[in-house]
């Protein structure tokens, strides 16, 4: 049994056919078929079966597949660590980030990193926050920038925390809430709430703030949108209110295109950070990115404290 054969099995299962898998692994279909047959001969059992036209692993195939994926990850990690020790991969960094708060944090940092080290190859992978840990586990990215409650309980991840930022209610400048002398949380929930798909902790906090009558009659979010730029456009064109970390809307507030609801502090906080698989070595360029991210975040926090 060879790792190459196990990778061929993975390809067949993932692609669902020998023809597509052969293209992925750069073999002819007969050569791929012979590789799977050799694997079956080595284990003494079929590893694939057809069920209503679908190509599925047998119980032995399932066992091989589970170990194949672990071996494939371990082998790629070993190759990566060898490259790091030789200084061959110092010029590449892949960062996984969500389309909401994380993306607002990393953009300036990536620009700064590229300015300081123009020879680096930087890649961002934008994905819903729910997918980011699995993207890291699949070795699609080296680091993920997330709200820390996502990964703090995941034993396979290490993380570096950033500052805790206040979450503020924002709306369009002409919103009726801006005319109130002392708006309250109850006043906020008199209007539609717009925001991203919510982390469990934030959802629970908002449900506690929301009046009981509203909890029974309406969903928490009237408009759900994970893309920050689109969400801001939504706010500018209706009476919806959104709750965002201050750094996400600092430029919009300065330009006057959005405003924070005056005199209202809800006591909500968000803390982002970098996370990575504990089993993977942190490269020099990843450490440099995290250093610059910490510095940028500290500047944002200091500016807010000085207001």
Topology, pairings included?
Elements: H1 3-15, H2 18-25, H3 29-43, E1 48-51, E2 54-57, H4 59-86, E3 92-97, H5 101-116, E4 121-126, H6 132-137, E5 143-147, E6 157-171, H7 185-188, E7 193-195, H8 200-209, H9 212-217, E8 223-224, H10 228-236, E9 241-245, H11 246-255, E10 259-260, E11 269-277, H12 284-306
Parallel strand pairs: 3-4, 3-5, 7-8, 7-9
Antiparallel strand pairs: 1-2, 5-11, 6-9, 6-10, 6-11
Helix pairs in contact: 1-2, 1-3, 1-4, 2-3, 5-12
Write a compact overview of the structure shown.
With 307 residues, the protein is of the alpha/beta class.
List keywords for this structure.
two-stranded antiparallel sheet; alpha/beta; elongated; 20% strand; 307 residues; 48% helix
Kindly describe this structure.
The protein has 307 residues and is of the alpha/beta class. 48% of the residues lie in helices and 20% in strands. The chain is built from twelve helices and eleven strands. The protein has helices spanning 3-15, 18-25, 29-43, 59-86, 101-116, 132-137, 185-188, 200-209, 212-217, 228-236, 246-255, 284-306; strands at 48-51, 54-57, 92-97, 121-126, 143-147, 157-171, 193-195, 223-224, 241-245, 259-260, 269-277. The strands form two sheets. Strands 3, 4, 5, 6, 7, 8, 9, 10 and 11 form a nine-stranded mixed β-sheet that branches. Strands 1-2 form a two-stranded antiparallel sheet. Strand 1 (48-51) and strand 2 form a beta hairpin. Helix 1 (3-15) crosses helix 2, helix 1 (3-15) crosses helix 4 (59-86) and helix 5 packs across helix 12. The longest helix is centred in the first third of the chain and has 28 residues, at 59-86. The chain is elongated, with a radius of gyration of 25 Å. The model has no long low-confidence stretch (mean pLDDT 86).
């Amino acid at each position: 049994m060879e790792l190459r054969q196990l990778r061929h099995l993975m390809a067949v299962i993932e692609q669902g056919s020998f023809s597509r898998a052969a293209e992925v692994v750069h073999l002819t279909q007969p050569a791929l078929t012979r590789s799977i047959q050799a694997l079956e001969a080595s284990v003494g059992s079929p590893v694939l079966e057809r069920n209503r036209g679908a190509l599925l692993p047998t119980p032995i195939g399932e066992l091989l597949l589970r170990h194949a994926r672990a071996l494939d990850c371990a082998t790629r990690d070993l190759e990566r660590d060898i490259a790091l020790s030789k200084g061959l991969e110092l010029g590449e960094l892949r960062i996984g980030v969500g389309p909401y708060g994380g993306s607002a944090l990393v953009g300036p940092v990536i620009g700064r990193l590229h300015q300081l080290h123009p020879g680096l190859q930087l890649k961002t992978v934008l994905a819903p926050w729910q997918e980011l840990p699995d993207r890291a586990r699949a070795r699609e990215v080296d680091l993920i920038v997330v709200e820390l409650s996502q990964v703090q309980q995941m034993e396979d991840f290490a993380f570096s925390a950033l500052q805790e930022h206040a979450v503020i209610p924002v709306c369009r400048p002409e919103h009726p809430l801006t005319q109130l002398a002392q708006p309250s949380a109850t006043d906020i929930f008199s209007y539609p709430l717009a925001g991203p798909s919510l982390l469990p902790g934030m959802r629970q906090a908002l449900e506690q703030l929301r009046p009981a009558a509203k909890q029974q009659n309406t969903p928490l979010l009237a408009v759900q949108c994970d893309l920050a730029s689109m969400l801001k456009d939504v706010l500018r064109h209706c009476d919806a209110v959104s709750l965002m970390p201050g750094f996400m809307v600092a430029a919009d507030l300065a330009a006057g295109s959005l405003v924070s609801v005056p005199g209202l502090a809800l006591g909500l906080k968000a803390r982002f950070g970098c996370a990575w698989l504990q089993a993977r070595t942190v490269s020099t360029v990843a450490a440099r990115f995290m250093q610059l991210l910490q510095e940028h975040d500290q500047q944002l926090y200091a500016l807010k404290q000085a207001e």
